[in-house]
Amino acid sequence: MNMASNDHLALLAQRIFDDLRAMSPDGAGVSRPAYSQVETQVLTYLAELARAQGLAVETDAAGNLWFSRPADREAARFMVVGSHVDSVPEGGNFDGLAGVVAGLLVLIRGRDRDFRLPVKCLALRGEESAWFGSCYLGSKALTGQMSAADLTAPHKADGRPLAEHMAALAIDTAPIAAGQPLIPLDRIAGYLELHIEQGPLLVERDIPAAVVTGIRGNIRYRSVTCTGAGGHSGAVPRAYRHDPVLAMADLLTRLDDSWLHILQTGGDLVVTSGVVGTDVARHAITRIADSISFSLDIRSQSNEVLDHMRDYLHEEMADIARVRGVHFETGPEIAAAPALMDDAMAAGLMAAMPRAGVAPFSMASGAGHDAAVFAQAGVPAAMVFVRNRNGSHNPREAMEISDFMVGTNIISAYLEATDP
Ligand SMILES: [Zn+2]
Fold first, then answer.
1. What is the β-pairing status of strands 188-196 and 209-215?
2. Could you tell me the maximum CA-CA distance found in the chain, to the nearest angstrom?
3. Within 13 A of 365's CA, how many CA atoms are on the CB side?
4. 265-274 pLDDT per residue, tens
5. Crossing angle of the two packed helices 97-109 and 3-23, in degrees rounded to 10
6. For residue 282, how far is its CA from the centre of ligand 1 (angstroms)?
7. How confident is the model at residue 112 (pLDDT cuts 50, 70, 90)?
8. Residue 309 CB contacts under 8 Å (≥ 6 apart), including other chains
């Protein structure tokens, strides 16, 4: 890599991040609501910057922006480097935006280089579910996957549906409601997304960037209820108890043991029970609870592991119910399939890592991304994660520009033709 141009691009990236942070401040962080005026202002800023850099700018029928070298504007088939420009309320500046800035930098550097295939950068709207309860709005609209429920989803602040918010931005929702892709999807040879890592792995392992192998799917139960028998904490002997709290503890311990086993045998899994509670109106320190409710969120890159965990969960609930004389009720299951990243693209990115000055490293993504929407639509997709401290969806997100440049350089090295 040409160091001078790398330094120049790093300074430009820093300026874009600083300018857009200043454009959307909220508390200690930034707020860029999905399909809002602020989101439009961010896109307008990026369009002006791209034009000043000699790039062509187009808007699609869902209000997403496309950037390309002028010569590639009408290309029949092209690679896409993109991500989203919206944020959660009082979120961090880099979630989403980093991937869009990376795409722009790839194009700016590509002005005097050859790409193996034409490249377009895509700035998507509306990825975060925080605003309408529904996520991936810009990419779902683009790929013809937006549902009627998405279009009628009410905004968290004003209660007006997404379709009205889109109409207010002069977006015609009729073609989107028809569920047809807004461009022929076979024109997209592949979708690449750089994103900050939202977990601690790269920080813990001291690695600046990684290739993502897959986006975890999940099975979720909002509220599993375990019902037993209440009683006096001092008066009921162990043998006569049907304590739902201990039954839940048994279940979580067994799920945890199974989790460890699956990891030790090379599988991918995460298990979380983030909402746990006995009934506030009836519980007391001296009372055996009569019921407890808890959430379960089970995620894996592998459908097989998810199916196994679903079976295991139900077997263990039946066993614990028998032993402890309690009753489990899971309520409805919410499921999302894992999104596999394209093997050839992931391998190509891994091979590009040494050319960007880092050793090849890959990992799973625990959170969902627009890349999953493209994969679902049959477009080969791949992702690069960049090291980031303090998690994401909060103002304390911390990505170093030098790490960001490593991630961007991996994508450039992958897209640029290596032989003359
Ligand atoms: Zn994001």
1. unpaired
2. 84
3. 29
4. 999 999 999 9
5. 140
6. 41
7. confident
8. 219, 255, 258, 269, 271, 298, 300
pTM: 0.86
For 204-251, what is each residue's pLDDT tens digit? 999 999 999 998 989 999 899 999 999 999 999 999 999 999 999 999
Cα(32) to centroid(ligand 1), Å: 12
Centroid of ligand 1 to alpha carbon of 253 (angstroms) = 32
Q: What are phi and psi of 180, to 5 degrees?
A: -95, 140
Distance CA 315, CA 248 (A): 14
* 301-327 residues labelled b (16+ CB within 10 A) or e (exposed): bbeebbebbeeebeebbeebbeebebe
Domain coordinates in residue numbering, the chain? 3-215+338-415, 217-336
The residues near 378 (Cβ < 8 Å, ≥ 6 apart) are 185
Angstrom distances, CA of residue 244 to CA of 50, 68, 197, 251: 60, 59, 37, 10
Ligand 1 centre from 72 Cα, in Å? 27
Cα 206 to ligand 1 centre (Å) = 22
- Cα 96 to ligand 1 centroid, rounded to whole Å: 4
CA 285–ligand 1 middle distance (angstroms): 42
Q: Which fold has domain 217-336?
A: Alpha-Beta Plaits (3.30.70)
User: Which residue's entry shows tokens 């596999």?
Assistant: 340
In three-state secondary structure terms, 265 is coil
Rounded to the nearest whole angstrom, what is the distance from the C-alpha of residue 231 to the centroid of ligand 1? Answer: 48
CA 376 to centroid of ligand 1, rounded, Å: 17
Q: How far is CA 57 from CA 49, 72, 319, in A?
A: 10, 11, 61
Q: Dump pLDDT digits (tens) for 392-401.
A: 999 999 999 9
Separation of CA 118 and ligand 1 centre (Å): 25
From ligand 1's centre to the CA of 195, what distance in Å?
7
Q: CA-to-CA distance for 74 and 162, rounded, in angstroms?
A: 31
Fold annotation for 3-215+338-415? Aminopeptidase (3.40.630)
Length of the chain: 420
Q: What is the CA radius of gyration of the chain?
A: 24
Q: What is the Å distance from ligand 1's center to 367 Cα?
A: 9
Task: Please state whether beta strands 29-30 and 65-68 pair in parallel, antiparallel, or not at all (unpaired).
Answer: unpaired
- Distance of CA 335 from the midpoint of ligand 1 (Å): 20
Q: How far is the CA of 365 from the centre of ligand 1 (A)?
A: 11
